[in-house]
């Protein structure tokens, strides 16, 4: 009998403990958003159009990628390749023109100078640009800038070299930080005020390629954007670049190329990396190929889960928005960033990689917000409307679903109402349809997946 009572007491205690644990999980954590605390200005989110190596994006896919309406990605930067052979430049024009008409900025990157300018007399396997060809190489880049402009697709920025620290058996070229300094000192003044110069684009955002430029009193005058990739790296702040007044762009990465872009929750890695890039003060984030089985648009033209996650940022955090102060980690598995538009619109993006719903008590400072409109991507939702929450006395409580990316967009301005906040619970379903994997991308994956010789 005693044993039975003991078992009952034990079961009761376990039940109470479980209930208390559940209660503790349900307790809302505080998120403070301060619109007067400003960080970087967002230039945009983008992707690579690989025409010449893979098929060009179709007209419909360009609209999907660079449009900002329902079912579209909202990208605002298109990256393209500068072919070493100028006879091939015309194939870049059509998509670039349309992307720019949709408001996109154009970044052009060379993978290799023409072979005769290099020490190995080859487009592949690295080799260095000979200093005696600095002038001709600058002319080569400027000719591409002029060609695109004359054909209705003026560039926003031109890069000096893609991945100077990667020497594969496809187009590539070896540069050091001192080489960039020498080239910019010699040729930088030729690029003038009409085209921004991007420098770096190291495979792992290694600062040894850009610190010398930033620390050179002369070369730094000719560099506008400091760029890098995230293969084998995680986003990190770059205080020296910011101190020199330079934008910091992440110009190429994919979180995984072996898995289909709809595999869930693996696709959430995109949300985690986007968040980390934003809080690292990056001005721009550019994915690798826009259309691929592992990418934002599938080969059949449908937007993937990874694409919908990108849209949670790109469609709502528009160019010229500023990142503002926000409590970044209200829970260990929840990441928050917030932004302010030129019209004082507030946007908050929440990445929940955990398996529980999370409640957030929001306090908004120095912002006048009437309502917050919710859009979510999860295993079952694709940038789906999730109701409207009223903001009262600069406060509101919102819920984010497990394993989701959720964007809250301000609507209207604050009123003097003191009634308790209310939330519409109606949800319009989306169309049918963990944390940092970037540091674990091995060089073998990098080689097989980013190589132009492969189908990726």
Q: Which keywords apply here?
A:
456 residues; alpha/beta; single chain; nine-stranded mixed β-sheet
Query: What is the count of β-strands?
Result: 17
**Helical coverage, percent range:** 10-25%
Which structural class fits the helix and strand makeup? alpha/beta
Unreliable spans? 1-25, 417-455
Mean pLDDT: 89
Series of secondary-structure elements, N-terminal to C-terminal: HEEHEHEHEHEHEHEHEHEEEEEEEEH
Please give the alpha-carbon distance between the first and last residues. 69 Å
What does the secondary structure layout of this molecule look like, with pairings?
Layout: H1 2-26, E1 29-41, E2 44-48, H2 59-66, E3 77-82, H3 93-101, E4 105-110, H4 134-150, E5 157-159, H5 177-187, E6 196-202, H6 211-214, E7 225-229, H7 239-243, E8 247-252, H8 268-279, E9 284-289, H9 305-314, E10 322-326, E11 334-340, E12 346-352, E13 358-365, E14 371-377, E15 384-390, E16 395-400, E17 404-411, H10 443-450
Parallel strand pairs: 1-13, 2-3, 2-9, 3-4, 4-5, 5-6, 6-7, 7-8, 8-9
Antiparallel strand pairs: 1-10, 10-11, 11-12, 12-17, 13-16, 14-15, 14-17
Explain what the structure shows.
The structure is a single chain. With 456 residues, the protein is α/β, with parallel strands linked by helices. The protein is built from 10 helices and 17 strands. It has helices at 2-26, 59-66, 93-101, 134-150, 177-187, 211-214, 239-243, 268-279, 305-314, 443-450, and strands at 29-41, 44-48, 77-82, 105-110, 157-159, 196-202, 225-229, 247-252, 284-289, 322-326, 334-340, 346-352, 358-365, 371-377, 384-390, 395-400, 404-411. A hairpin with a 6-residue loop joins β14 and β15 (384-390).
């Amino acid at each position: 009998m005693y044993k039975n009572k003991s078992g009952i007491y034990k079961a009761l205690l376990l039940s109470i403990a479980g209930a208390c644990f559940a209660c503790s999980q349900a307790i809302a954590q505080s998120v403070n958003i301060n619109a007067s605390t400003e960080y970087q200005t967002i230039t945009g989110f983008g992707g690579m159009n690989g025409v010449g190596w893979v098929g060009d994006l179709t007209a419909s896919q360009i609209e999907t990628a660079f449009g900002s309406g329902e079912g579209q990605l909202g990208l605002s930067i298109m990256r393209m390749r500068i072919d070493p052979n100028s006879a091939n430049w015309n194939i870049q024009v059509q998509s670039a023109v349309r992307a720019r008409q949709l408001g996109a900025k154009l970044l052009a990157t060379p993978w290799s100078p023409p072979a005769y300018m290099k020490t190995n007399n080859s487009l592949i396997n690295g080799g260095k640009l000979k200093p005696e060809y600095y002038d001709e190489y600058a002319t080569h880049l400027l000719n591409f800038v002029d060609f695109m402009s004359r054909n209705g697709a003026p560039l926003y920025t031109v890069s000096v070299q893609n991945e100077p620290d990667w020497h594969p058996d496809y187009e590539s070229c070896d540069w050091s930080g001192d080489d960039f300094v020498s080239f910019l000192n010699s040729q930088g003044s030729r690029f003038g005020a009409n085209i921004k110069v991007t420098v770096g684009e190291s495979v792992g955002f290694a600062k040894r390629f850009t610190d010398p430029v930033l620390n050179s009193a002369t070369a730094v005058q000719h560099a506008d954007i400091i760029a890098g990739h995230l293969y084998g790296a995680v986003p990190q702040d770059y205080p020296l670049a910011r101190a020199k007044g330079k934008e910091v762009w992440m110009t190429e990465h994919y979180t995984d190329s072996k898995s289909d872009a709809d595999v869930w929750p693996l696709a959430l890695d995109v949300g985690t990396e986007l968040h980390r890039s934003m809080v690292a003060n990056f001005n721009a984030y550019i994915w690798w190929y826009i259309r691929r089985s592992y990418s934002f648009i599938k080969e059949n033209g449908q937007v993937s889960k990874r694409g919908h996650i990108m849209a949670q940022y790109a469609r709502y955090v528009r160019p010229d928005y500023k990142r503002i102060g926000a409590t970044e980690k209200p829970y260990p598995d929840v990441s928050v960033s917030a932004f302010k538009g030129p019209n004082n619109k507030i946007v908050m993006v929440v990445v929940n990689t955990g398996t529980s719903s999370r409640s957030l008590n929001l306090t908004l400072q120095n912002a006048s917000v009437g309502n917050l409109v919710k859009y979510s991507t999860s295993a079952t939702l694709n940038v789906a409307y999730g109701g409207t929450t009223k903001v009262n006395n600069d406060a509101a409580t919102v819920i984010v679903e497990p394993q989701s990316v959720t964007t809250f967009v301000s609507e209207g301005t604050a009123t003097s109402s003191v009634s308790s906040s209310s939330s519409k619970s109606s949800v319009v379903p989306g169309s049918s349809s963990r944390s940092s994997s970037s540091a674990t991308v091995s060089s073998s994956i990098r080689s097989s997946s980013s190589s132009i010789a492969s189908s990726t």
